[in-house]
TrEMBL record:
Coiled coil: none annotated. It comes from the Bacteria. This is MOSC domain-containing protein. Residues 21-171 form the MOSC domain. It comes from Microbacterium marmarense.
């Protein structure tokens, strides 16, 4: 099943390992690697802490996506967050990214495709960006479940250019496997 239901709000990339990423007019997705010129692009893990421990592991965190609706949630709690501020590469609108299953594919206007691999596991640097923000983005709910709101991670299946305003087509896998932290 697939449908066009979302839109790209912004794209961001940075060639250095900094917390926030500057927004760009467009980014180029490269199959199996990530975003051309981004510090997290590569076939093997590129995030600094995991890279130090297991540099040979497959990079399942090539492209980070966050839903724009999260910014309204954080603003209501006194935190100003804009596209790229939390290190995401693609900011979306109109998609419930967190409810999608592992293996869900998102196709962008140019035909570029990413496949969701898991939930972003947030780090303490979030509080350095805005004190107290971490507790708004990861917490234990009334049922005792850990809630992570900091977006999803993905790998690039098909390369191409992605820019603000692109439509997003969701391609749902046959079997729904929940997203787990990666």
């Amino acid at each position: 099943m697939s449908e066009t239901s979302g839109q790209v709000v912004a794209v961001a990339a940075d060639d250095a390992h900094r917390f926030s990423k500057p927004t760009r007019d467009s980014v180029t997705l490269v199959a199996g690697l990530g975003i051309a010129g981004d510090a997290h692009a590569g076939a093997t893990v590129q995030h600094l802490a995991p890279m130090a421990r297991h540099p040979e592991r497959q990079n399942v965190r090539q492209v980070h996506l966050i839903h724009e609706e999260l910014f309204e949630h954080t603003a209501a709690r006194g935190h100003s967050v804009n596209p790229g501020d939390l290190g995401e590469n693609i900011t979306t609108r109109g998609l419930d990214l967190l409810a999608m299953g592992r293996g869900t594919r998102l196709e962008f206007g140019s035909g570029a495709i990413v496949e969701l691999t898991g939930l972003r596991n947030p780090c303490a640097q979030i509080n350095g960006f805005s004190p107290g923000l971490m507790k708004e983005l990861i917490y234990v709910d009334e049922r005792g479940d850990t809630v992570r709101l900091v977006g999803v991670m993905s790998v690039v299946i098909n390369g191409g250019e992605v820019r603000a305003g692109d439509g997003i087509r969701v391609i749902v896998p046959d079997v729904h496997e929940p997203l787990l932290p990666v």
